[in-house]
Amino acid sequence: MWALGLLSLAVLGDVACGKPVYTGDKVQSRTPYAVKDSYDVPAKWTREGPAPEDHHITLSIGLKQSRFGDLEKQLMEVSDPDHPRYGQHLTPEEVSKYIRPTEEASDDVHEWLSDNGVDLDTLSHTQAGDWITVRLPVKQVEQLLDTEYSVYKHDEDGTRMVRAPEWSLPRHLHGHVDAIQPTNSFSRPSKLSKPNMKRSSTLKPVSKAEGALRVPLGTPGVQHPTVSQVCNTSLVTPLCLRTLYGTVDYVPQVPGQNQIALCNYLNETNNRSDVSIFLQNFRPDAAGAGQQFTIDIIANGQNQQTPLSATQLGNGQDIEGNLDAETILGISYPTPLTAYNTGGSPDFIPDVNTPTDTNEPYLTWITFVEGQSSVPQVISTSYDDDEQTVPPSFAARVCQEFAKFGVQGHTLLFASGDSGVGPTGGCTSNNGTNATAFIPEFPSTCPYITSVGATKNFAPEVAAFDSSNNFASGGGFSNYFARPYYQNTTVPQYIASLNGEYAGLFNASGRGYPDISAQGQRFAVVYDGEVISVDGTSAATPAASAVLSLVNDALIAAGKSPLGFFNPLLYKTAYAGFNDITSGSAIGCGTNGFAAKAGWDPVTGFGTPNFPKILSILGVPTNSSSTT
Ligand SMILES: *[C@@H]1O[C@H](CO)[C@@H](O)[C@H](O)[C@H]1NC(C)=O
Ligand SMILES: *[C@@H]1O[C@H](CO)[C@@H](O)[C@H](O)[C@H]1NC(C)=O
Ligand SMILES: *[C@@H]1O[C@H](CO)[C@@H](O)[C@H](O)[C@H]1NC(C)=O
Ligand SMILES: *[C@@H]1O[C@H](CO)[C@@H](O)[C@H](O)[C@H]1NC(C)=O
Ligand SMILES: *[C@@H]1O[C@H](CO)[C@@H](O)[C@H](O)[C@H]1NC(C)=O
Ligand SMILES: *[C@@H]1O[C@H](CO)[C@@H](O)[C@H](O)[C@H]1NC(C)=O
Ligand SMILES: *[C@@H]1O[C@H](CO)[C@@H](O)[C@H](O)[C@H]1NC(C)=O
Ligand SMILES: *[C@@H]1O[C@H](CO)[C@@H](O)[C@H](O)[C@H]1NC(C)=O
């Protein structure tokens, strides 16, 4: 089947002038087209009509990574503490060797683009050449992919996207291309912070201008306060977290060599003034860091440092960003922090008739970071989306991209979601049956990353749940990614312990998540100059990331490799350095959800980090001031 048709001059007018870019001729191809990928439009998205003629699409073409299987083997070897190559992370050049597409794949794809009027000078390529990006008018993309793009509108929030649920390629390219987006992915990563907008009465700021909050930093005169002296469930502070997880006396030894990063999407940024006020009050020795951390702007990402408008304040813009930066600096200071603010497409101008230009944000970020000479060892991301909004082929490819980070010694942590096993009222399968099912969250379901759930309370910690906003630590099992080998004893044990409870609602052969957890309820956040409290695996993820970053500091100082992809080590030995959480559950989908139990569980993973214990398992000295 050919998609033919002549283009109107109006469309041509938008393309770079003077270049023989798009002739409007018939689609050229050596072989006939056949459907390459097809995925049902998720519930809640309704087709409104054809894509506007003047719409442009920034197309990302993922060429098959020639030796991904070998790369995966490398990943498992360098991450397995019993393997002789443990910790021998690969360089970007070595990674390129495994993922560079074959010459044939690369040539055939370029030939196809060129034959169809795409000026090859307008393409951009990743270093390994495994992604090609090009901005084209929608009509041209429709011809290239023999499809039709439509505008889809979200029934609840009115967001619009231009998507094509089914797309095709000439047959000879099927084996060369893994994924092309935007086509059929409806993923929209969302922030995982749930503000409790109540301003804290006892901790009310004296005044914004003074920038001073009166916050108890501990018991005066007590040098090594206990958890009960510094922790209060109504407001979780850095001193509480540092005391609870045992980092409070640790002095980072190699800041600079060791680094940490967080990712901002959806216009979030980290307001330097708020972060500074937070640190002045909750971590005074780190106060200067609020003005000093690095903010990298990617694809026109936002970095608004001027006062937020009433609408932005109403939307809670920057609560997520502030939470992430404040939590990380509050724990891992003076380890340098980088914030990656990733935006959408460069020249998108929204208007009432134009759909939101939703590029795939993780891809935009990955493509940028891969070109960087220095990438922090730990990267915290507090965003996720329902796995079933991402087509399996694309989820698989994005997950492969994350594997590249692990094999180079980076630890990627993602929040496990804020709705337990799924949002009550939204637990419907998208597979054509409308069956009731638990709803797993991506990227947490990707087996190459570490997923973080949330806890609350202190003695003992339990799985997080807040009845005031229905926040519950996310957890479950993937429908896309099979159980990875490192889970092959732990996870079946948990499933067996269910005795058939929830059978049919979750995929017992899938990758279980989260892997670990950390406090995630009623975090102190300075926002708009005041203290508020915030729930979320969004709080747990930067907290866990900061603790693991300090583990890296100790490892690097001792001349060892950083953690890199953590799960194989975690499931083999390091789990013993985590505080096991045994009560509470992943409340959601109108059920109590999976319960926390002794050992691993799909609501808190192996539990929360015990820093000194992790270091002792890894055989590294803490070099802390309190070492006796
Ligand atoms: C925790 O904080 C709340 C609110 O500030 C206070 O009323 C309560 O007494 C505190 N609890 C403890 C154990 O300090
Ligand atoms: C501990 O850290 C301090 C300061 O960072 C350093 O001077 C000292 O050599 C370290 N000691 C050991 C045993 O590594
Ligand atoms: C981001 O900011 C742009 C421009 O200020 C705005 O049009 C868009 O709606 C914002 N997106 C989100 C997700 O807030
Ligand atoms: C941060 O937020 C405050 C309070 O809304 C605002 O006054 C300020 O302009 C923002 N940016 C900076 C850099 O302080
Ligand atoms: C599933 O639900 C959608 C939306 O309510 C409906 O249009 C569709 O017919 C349902 N499908 C089945 C198989 O029940
Ligand atoms: C659809 O999803 C439900 C719930 O996960 C599952 O039980 C069922 O087997 C699936 N059906 C098909 C055809 O995939
Ligand atoms: C369950 O997971 C397996 C392994 O990833 C997958 O092959 C299968 O399709 C999944 N089943 C459903 C109903 O999604
Ligand atoms: C789990 O995987 C490990 C590593 O591949 C292997 O040694 C072990 O035998 C496996 N265990 C089971 C129960 O399959």
Automatic annotation (TrEMBL):
<feature type="active site" description="Charge relay system">
    <location>
        <position position="320"/>
    </location>
</feature>
<dbReference type="InterPro" id="IPR030400">
    <property type="entry name" value="Sedolisin_dom"/>
</dbReference>
<feature type="active site" description="Charge relay system">
    <location>
        <position position="538"/>
    </location>
</feature>
<dbReference type="GO" id="GO:0006508">
    <property type="term" value="P:proteolysis"/>
</dbReference>
<dbReference type="Pfam" id="PF00082">
    <property type="entry name" value="Peptidase_S8"/>
</dbReference>
<feature type="binding site">
    <location>
        <position position="601"/>
    </location>
    <ligand>
        <name>Ca(2+)</name>
    </ligand>
</feature>
<dbReference type="InterPro" id="IPR023828">
    <property type="entry name" value="Peptidase_S8_Ser-AS"/>
</dbReference>
<dbReference type="GO" id="GO:0004252">
    <property type="term" value="F:serine-type endopeptidase activity"/>
</dbReference>
<dbReference type="GO" id="GO:0008240">
    <property type="term" value="F:tripeptidyl-peptidase activity"/>
</dbReference>
<keyword id="KW-0378">Hydrolase</keyword>
<dbReference type="GO" id="GO:0046872">
    <property type="term" value="F:metal ion binding"/>
</dbReference>
<comment type="function">
    <text>Secreted tripeptidyl-peptidase which degrades proteins at acidic pHs and is involved in virulence.</text>
</comment>
<dbReference type="InterPro" id="IPR050819">
    <property type="entry name" value="Tripeptidyl-peptidase_I"/>
</dbReference>
<keyword id="KW-0732">Signal</keyword>
<keyword id="KW-0106">Calcium</keyword>
<keyword id="KW-0843">Virulence</keyword>
<feature type="compositionally biased region" description="Polar residues">
    <location>
        <begin position="181"/>
        <end position="190"/>
    </location>
</feature>
<dbReference type="Pfam" id="PF09286">
    <property type="entry name" value="Pro-kuma_activ"/>
</dbReference>
<protein>
    <recommendedName>
        <fullName>tripeptidyl-peptidase II</fullName>
        <ecNumber>3.4.14.10</ecNumber>
    </recommendedName>
</protein>
<dbReference type="InterPro" id="IPR000209">
    <property type="entry name" value="Peptidase_S8/S53_dom"/>
</dbReference>
<keyword id="KW-0325">Glycoprotein</keyword>
<feature type="binding site">
    <location>
        <position position="581"/>
    </location>
    <ligand>
        <name>Ca(2+)</name>
    </ligand>
</feature>
<dbReference type="GO" id="GO:0005576">
    <property type="term" value="C:extracellular region"/>
</dbReference>
<feature type="active site" description="Charge relay system">
    <location>
        <position position="324"/>
    </location>
</feature>
<dbReference type="InterPro" id="IPR015366">
    <property type="entry name" value="S53_propep"/>
</dbReference>
<feature type="binding site">
    <location>
        <position position="580"/>
    </location>
    <ligand>
        <name>Ca(2+)</name>
    </ligand>
</feature>
<feature type="region of interest" description="Disordered">
    <location>
        <begin position="180"/>
        <end position="205"/>
    </location>
</feature>
<keyword id="KW-0964">Secreted</keyword>
<keyword id="KW-0645">Protease</keyword>
<feature type="domain" description="Peptidase S53">
    <location>
        <begin position="235"/>
        <end position="621"/>
    </location>
</feature>
<keyword id="KW-0479">Metal-binding</keyword>
<dbReference type="InterPro" id="IPR036852">
    <property type="entry name" value="Peptidase_S8/S53_dom_sf"/>
</dbReference>
<feature type="signal peptide">
    <location>
        <begin position="1"/>
        <end position="18"/>
    </location>
</feature>
<keyword id="KW-0865">Zymogen</keyword>
<feature type="binding site">
    <location>
        <position position="599"/>
    </location>
    <ligand>
        <name>Ca(2+)</name>
    </ligand>
</feature>
<keyword id="KW-0720">Serine protease</keyword>
